[in-house]
Amino acid sequence: MKLVKILSTSIFALLIISCNTNGQVGKNNAVKLVAPKGKAIAAFASGCFWCSEHIFEAVVGVDSAVSGYAGGTTVNPTYELVNTETTGHAETVLVYYNPTIVSYEELVEVFFSSHDPTTPNQQGPDRGSSYRSVLFYQTDAEKNIAMNAIKKISNSNRFSKPIVTELAALKAFYRAEEYHQDFIEHNPNQAYVRAVSIPRFEKFKKAYKGKLKKGY
């Protein structure tokens, strides 16, 4: 649950702040939405970014995923502020990938295979608008792919309830604090990870028909 997650990370936050002589967390954390040469980027909000980051990084063709915040109006938000549900931001992952190996369309499939897009402002035990489902796009082509995916899934029997996933232009992305990055990799025995993140990942592996990297 959100409270458990906040409490479990508060110690990390305090440690980081105590090591920062300026005590500044989340300042100037905007990420330039420009992909390296030959690469592409895409952003997805599908609940806890610890889980989402781990899932996308397991997909063949994905170079890395960064945990952060998008979809809101607050500039340079912090984790604590986003959890007040007043910033408009959702926990989001920015995915860096090789478009010659994996397409945006396939990443959209990863998105729908890895969370429940029918629960408004909730994903598993986490509740609030910061955990809502959002498909971000940067181009008209990506928007059309996302729209078609939502339409196709809505017309199928894949989910028993209506899709509530938002479709939004990616206007800004803010990198989350460092203790959130690759959280599952660094904290495999943390309570939330064992109770929520790992089971969600295992469920994704059973549902996803695409290629995953060795070791996953």
UniProtKB/TrEMBL annotation:
Keyword Methyltransferase set for record: no
Family matches, as PROSITE patterns: PROKAR_LIPOPROTEIN
Signal peptide limits: 1-23
A Pfam family assignment: PMSR
Major enzyme class: oxidoreductase
Keywords on record: Oxidoreductase, Signal
InterPro entries linked: Met_Sox_Rdtase_MsrA_dom (IPR002569), Met_Sox_Rdtase_MsrA_sf (IPR036509)
Residue intervals of the Peptide methionine sulphoxide reductase MsrA domain: 42-192
Gene Ontology molecular function: peptide-methionine (S)-S-oxide reductase activity
UniProt superkingdom: Bacteria
Record's catalysed reaction(s): L-methionyl-[protein] + [thioredoxin]-disulfide + H2O = L-methionyl-(S)-S-oxide-[protein] + [thioredoxin]-dithiol; [thioredoxin]-disulfide + L-methionine + H2O = L-methionine (S)-S-oxide + [thioredoxin]-dithiol
EC number, UniProt record: 1.8.4.11
Active site per database record: C48
Reported function: Has an important function as a repair enzyme for proteins that have been inactivated by oxidation. Catalyzes the reversible oxidation-reduction of methionine sulfoxide in proteins to methionine.
Family: Belongs to the MsrA Met sulfoxide reductase family.
Classification via HAMAP family: MsrA
Protein name as annotated: Peptide methionine sulfoxide reductase MsrA
Organism of provenance: Pedobacter puniceum
